[in-house]
Amino acid sequence: MTKRVALYLRVSTSEQTTANQRRELNAAAKRHGWNVVGVFEDAGLSGAKGRAQRPGLDALLRGVVRKDFDMVAAWSVDRLGRSLQDLLSLLGELHAQDVGLYLHQQGLDTTTPSGKAMFQMMGVFAEFERAMIRERVKAGLARAVADGTRLGRPRAGAKVEAAIRAERRKGTGMNKIAAQLGVGTALVQRVIAATA
Hints:
Number of strands: 5
Order of helices and strands: EHEHEHHEEHHHH
Radius of gyration: 25 Å
CATH architecture of the largest domain: 3-Layer(aba) Sandwich
Number of domains: 2
Shape: elongated
Structural class: alpha/beta
Largest sheet: 5 strands, mixed
Distance between the termini: 72 Å
Strand order of the largest sheet: 2-1-3-4-5
CATH superfamily of the largest domain: Resolvase, N-terminal catalytic domain
CATH topology of the largest domain: Rossmann fold
């Protein structure tokens, strides 16, 4: 019996395209004799986002529950997610419905015991990579602060802040102050909170 396969495609930014993933996965399906019955895509969405923020992944997993396919094919483990917990949860959902997972870059088929073990190890490395990126970002922010770089939103300027405080002393509401001065209500709230 021919396997019914769903393709899952994801790129992190809007400047990237899923075209290469689609082409390679369709070619792999053809080589294996699989029937591609659905393509699910999340373009411009980080792998760190969960199922709720990735409509393509959510639709794919709803199809898994309905048993619309026998296997899910993705370009790579990092296209599915970045945290080990999320990856293992995904694998658990697939296996609970007796749906296999094929990862093209790793040449991995989780319908085999060795493929399942390999998937779990790759998840560990994906989570490690994400932790390393997070640590580099923190180190960069700490260096910027040590160098005297001011982080966060730029200040509005002394004149604008003085105008906000003056309007507030008159009893003007925050939304009206923001509209009169052409600034955001968040800025008005920050200035008022800082003077309280």
